[in-house]
Write a structure and sequence with these properties.
The chain has 661 residues and is an alpha+beta fold. It folds into four domains: 53 residues, Beta-grasp domain (Ubiquitin-like (UB roll)); 192 residues, Threonyl-tRNA Synthetase, Chain A, domain 2; 288 residues, Bira Bifunctional Protein, Domain 2 (BirA Bifunctional Protein, domain 2, 2-Layer Sandwich); 92 residues, Rossmann fold (3-Layer(aba) Sandwich). Helix content is 34%, strand content 27%. The chain is built from 21 helices and 33 strands. The strands form eight sheets. An eight-stranded mixed sheet has the order 16-20-21-28-25-24-22-23, with helices on both faces. The chain is globular, with a radius of gyration of 31 Å. About 1% of the residues have low confidence. It binds one RNA strand of 76 nucleotides through β12, β13, α12, β25 and α19.
RNA sequence: GCCGCCUUAGCUCAGUCGGCAGAGCGAUUCACUCGUAAUGAAUAGGUCUGGGGUUCGAUUCCCCAAGGCGGCUCCA
């Protein structure tokens, strides 16, 4: 007699036969690839117990996608070891939009190798191999995997420390019970197997042809620079071929928006080799963009009560000892210049100099909050391998401010700063944010990096956390991500195609005021130490410009466009008429250009389109006769015969309101 | 900094199994003056990233350096 058990399936109580598997429950829906049993993801082959709560997980659910990609990583590893039996396995977790697998091989993978691997993977997938879970003891696993030194190392780390051992290592040995997943062919023979926590999709068939091997690179074993480098192969996998194609299209769109490419096309900036790596120069059009950004940000700061200051690019080293930066960041600062018996450093941060301004005379509590702000040029010796366009440079301009406040004023000031930075970002067209709270972490490798007492850190962190919570935005913890002198909130902004960028930062610092001996005289006549709050709104002007170029794909809103209005005469005869129209606009501060080349009209239209100028004004006989112009917009739409005064008013209004057209 | 790949005209890229280098776009000039994404023709433009080596001969092969790209590590 077969006993029955009661399970809860997607919230409904059901009585089923003993030994029923999750697969039995969801057999009629092929999109269900894994199950969540009592909150844990399980293979569909998992045998249910009385009282289990079972939820179906679809292939296109976030969890389902992770499982799909992790299974695809196994197929990749099987393919690699089929082609090269000497390859040793590292780890192979799912990542955003795909997966990777690390291998120890004597020669790195070539692009041809990757194509070959893709073919081998397709054959494995077509075989319809099933993923079969098998529990093993630690001892048996060590024997079976004696040829896989990295796996053996992970077995030694299994349990609580595995997640810390390496990002992604948890997918191999995350649980208390070690398991091996065997890939079994239809004839029952074992094709391959891998130490793995699982779960997996039931069969490789589900991968179809919706996967791709994308690239390879080196990666340090367990993410540590001190360890051996392995060769990492990246891939992507999706529920359907259409999903894969859409993903590849997204990548292509990101490539089209690449600010390095658009910077050349739009003649905004360049990176001359002669200057050195990571040192951009801004061409006239990029210069306009940069100046518009700075002018606007400077004005908004002043409106919000900041005082604009200026400080030099270099300083004697003592200053950076006082601040505490030099011991921590000496290797990321440019080496010093010796002059008149002193060592001078290019500054990598502005706060020490602002502290000197604060300290230049006695301060009263009546002056607080005292908010100092500048576009400070800083230089950081970024490692050669990390330099990237405008987003990671060695010379940059920070829109940096320091608010000096009483401890009681700190929460309100932080709130003020957060609202201020969010409003600034919105003005530039970014309006989708979340926050990150970077804190001290004494358990990890960064232990010892932080100065100040635990109580001070706890208090500062709590203040930031409270303000962040009050904002209503999502808050993501970032343990260990704080600077040495205090915790920080950072604002992450999503751009037009969904990528996130770290923008503004707000840091609570109780250390530097002490190190600099900053004080103010309180109402009772006593001397008190202020708290300083660091804040960068865009992080760096360069980086933010890069983000804006990609966010707008080079098609800036009129107020930021290097050229706002481009005149295109239908024929040479109408150039004079257009010139008059344009000079009228220029007199009102509009940035105008006239296409006086001897190109034919269609070519001028093409050039105008490629330049991404927001307003193209066209004039021919019809327009001139009517005292009008014709608009052509970036989307190709047009409005003909608009009276000149009306056109001018529309253009000026769009610029003034900072709207996109 | 580490690993891999790459560096040819202003830009995008061919090419040379080692024998004094090509295209398109762009630029300049001439003709054309045209109503919504490329008119035609001509001309100029390159110590083939730099330095060493091998060779009768190196842009091509080898070594080193610089710069770029993709990752890793890092990012006050």
């Amino acid at each position: 007699m077969s006993a029955s058990i009661t399970v809860s399936v997607a919230g409904n109580e059901r009585s089923v036969a003993e030994a029923t598997t999750a697969a039995d429950l969801f057999a009629d829906d092929r999109a269900i690839v894994v199950a969540r049993v009592n909150g844990e993801l399980r293979d569909l082959a998992h045998v249910l117990a009385d009282g289990d709560a079972v939820e179906p997980v679809r292939i296109d659910d976030p969890d389902g996608l992770q499982v799909l990609r992790h299974s695809c990583a196994h197929v990749l590893a099987q393919a690699v070891q089929q082609v090269n039996p000497d390859a040793k396995l590292g780890i192979g977790p799912p990542i955003r939009d795909g997966f990777y697998y690390d291998f120890d091989v004597t020669t790195p993978f070539t692009p041809e190798d990757l194509k070959e691997l893709e073919k081998v993977m397709q054959r494995i997938i077509n075989e319809g191999q099933t993923f079969v879970r098998r529990e093993v003891s630690d001892e048996d696993a060590l024997v079976e995997l004696a040829g896989e030194p990295f796996k053996c190392e992970l077995i030694g780390l299994k349990g609580g420390s595995a997640e810390d051992a390496a990002e992604g290592a948890g997918v191999e040995v995350g649980g208390a019970q070690l398991t091996i997943y065997d890939n079994v062919r239809r004839d029952g023979t074992r094709a391959w197997g891998d130490l793995c926590r699982g779960p997996h999709i039931p069969t490789t068939k589900l991968l179809g042809n919706a996967f791709k091997v994308t690239r390879s690179s080196a990666a340090y074993w367990r993410g540590d620079q001190a360890n051996q480098q392995l060769q990492r192969v990246y891939g992507t996998a999706w529920p359907t071929k259409a999903d894969l194609t859409a993903y590849l299209d997204r990548l292509a769109e990101a490539e089209r928006r690449d600010h390095r490419k658009l910077g050349i096309e739009l003649d905004l900036y360049s990176f001359p080799d002669e200057l050195g790596s990571g040192l951009p120069v801004f061409h006239p059009k990029g210069g306009v963009l940069k100046r518009e950004m700075e002018d606007y940000v400077r004005r908004r700061h002043i409106e919000e009560g900041f005082l604009y200051v200026g400080t030099p690019h270099i300083s004697k080293e003592g200053l950076f000892h006082t601040s505490g930066h030099l011991p921590y960041y000496a290797d990321t600062m440019f080496p010093p210049m010796s002059m008149e018996g002193s060592d001078y450093y290019l500054k990598a941060m502005n706060c020490p100099m602002h502290n000197l301004i604060y300290r230049s005379r006695g301060r009263s509590y009546r002056e607080l909050p005292l908010r100092l702000f500048e576009f400070g040029s800083v230089y950081r010796y970024e490692k050669s391998g990390v330099i990237h366009g405008l987003t990671r440079v060695r010379g940059l301009e920070m829109d940096d401010s320091h608010s000096y406040v009483t401890p009681e004023q700190a929460p309100a000031e932080i709130k003020h700063l957060l609202n201020f930075v969010l409003s600034l970002l919105r003005d530039f067209g970014l309006d989708d944010f979340y926050l990150e709270l970077s804190t001290r972490d004494d358990s990890g490798a960064k232990k010892g990096k932080f100065i100040g007492s635990e109580e001070q850190w706890a208090e500062a962190t709590q203040i930031l956390a409270d303000v962040a919570a009050e904002s209503g935005l999502d808050l993501v913890p970032d343990p260990g991500g704080a600077a040495f002198y205090g915790p920080k909130i950072s604002v992450q902004a999503r751009d037009a195609i969904g990528r996130t960028w770290q923008m503004s930062t707000i840091q609570y610092d109780f250390n530097q005021p002490e190190r600099f001996g900053l004080e103010y005289q309180a109402a009772d006549g006593s001397r008190q130490q202020p708290v300083m709050i660091h804040s960068a709104k865009f992080g760096s002007i360069e980086r933010f410009m890069g983000v804006l170029v990609e966010h707008y794909a080079g098609a800036f809103p009129p107020w930021l466009s290097p050229v706002q209005v481009l005149g295109v005469p239908v024929a040479e005869e109408y150039a004079g008429y257009l010139r008059e129209v344009l000079s009228g606009l220029a007199a009102q501060g509009v940035r105008v250009e006239l296409d006086e080349s001897d190109d034919r009209f269609p070519k001028k239209i093409r050039n105008a389109s490629k330049s991404k100028v927001p307003f193209v004004l066209i004039a021919g006989e019809d327009d001139r006769a009517a005292g009008a112009v014709s608009f052509r917009f970036r989307d190709g739409s047009q409005r003909n015969g608009i009276p000149v005064a009306e056109a001018a008013a529309e253009i000026l209004a769009a610029i003034a309101s900072r709207t996109q057209v």
